[in-house]
């Protein structure tokens, strides 16, 4: 058996056919002649760039000519595909046609996480999830079929930074005193507030910010990717047979989001620090600075099912490694009405029993 070193390309060494990553086999395989290439242990970790460096890098490449960027005229998604792929459906909304977008694929990814969950397993996870969505219309159950799912590599920026925060707040100490009110002696609690200043710091590794345009709200709930261990250096060969969503959020805009995440974390640390020395805390303000910021573009594996119901678009997203699901789905008016009616009947029955017995 041969092995796929980085840059092996997509052509089968045996027949010249197009090779694709096969999730079930966890190998690169040829659809023509079944030649299999094992995945080699990566020679290096995916590279991270100093943030200043990535800002300066020209985003023109289409990843060395290995890719094309297509657009969906229905949902507006922009999708990066291997250059040789044609006739594709939109992974996000299922529209049957994609057109050239005219945009660049931008900064090439440094890292990628391979799919572990195959189509069948993703379909099973999806139908299990659907069974617990009581208000989903019955007609939606058919959407959980495996062939309604599409695999997508979704774009994320990761940020590492040493975060430093100076804070000022107030720490409260609770005291008690005896007061006389209307001739009665009472114990009263009061708080003495003291201004507190301090410093907290923390190193953040791989803060993940979703950079695509389509499903940010859903993907914010699906960040359970172990990027410290599961990433391999990006190789165009892995993209063959898959669609990758083209990033829309620039590294600069993503860093603003990452700063909010890190600052909120530091503020929590500052408040906890004050509470360790005082009974209560209030009004803590923190100013943060970020040193040694490193950034990289990574593609993470997701299964999508986009569908429309009653004229509205919905989407369900499944983590392609862990199987965790986030989804928006229509609520069946008939089922809700049935539950409300059942509730009202129950209430009426209780009221009736109450009055006939009293
Ligand atoms: Zn072949
Ligand atoms: Zn679409």
Would you kindly provide a written description of the structure presented here, covering whatever features stand out?
- This protein has 358 residues and is of the alpha+beta class.
- The protein has two domains: 1-41, no CATH class; 44-160 and 198-327, no CATH class.
- 22% of the residues lie in helices and 38% in strands.
- It has six helices and 16 strands.
- It has helices spanning 51-56, 62-65, 119-131, 216-219, 251-277, 333-357, and strands spanning 2-4, 19-22, 27-30, 36-39, 49-50, 67-71, 78-82, 99-100, 111-112, 150-181, 184-210, 232-233, 243-245, 280-309, 312-319, 325-327.
- The strands form two sheets. Strands 5, 6, 7, 8, 9, 10, 11, 12, 13, 14, 15 and 16 form a twelve-stranded mixed beta sheet that branches.
- Strand 3 and strand 4 (36-39) form a beta hairpin.
- The longest helix has 27 residues, at 251-277.
- It starts with a strand and ends with a helix.
- The relative contact order is 0.20.
- Residues 1-8 have low confidence and may be disordered.
- The site of one zinc ion has 8 residues, from loops.
Outline the secondary-structure elements.
Blueprint lengths: L1 E3 L14 E4 L4 E4 L5 E4 L9 E2 H6 L5 H4 L1 E5 L6 E5 L16 E2 L10 E2 L6 H13 L18 E32 L2 E27 L5 H4 L12 E2 L9 E3 L5 H27 L2 E30 L2 E8 L5 E3 L5 H25 L1
Parallel strand pairs: 1-4, 9-14, 10-13
Antiparallel strand pairs: 2-3, 3-4, 5-14, 6-7, 6-8, 7-13, 9-12, 10-11, 10-14, 14-15, 15-16
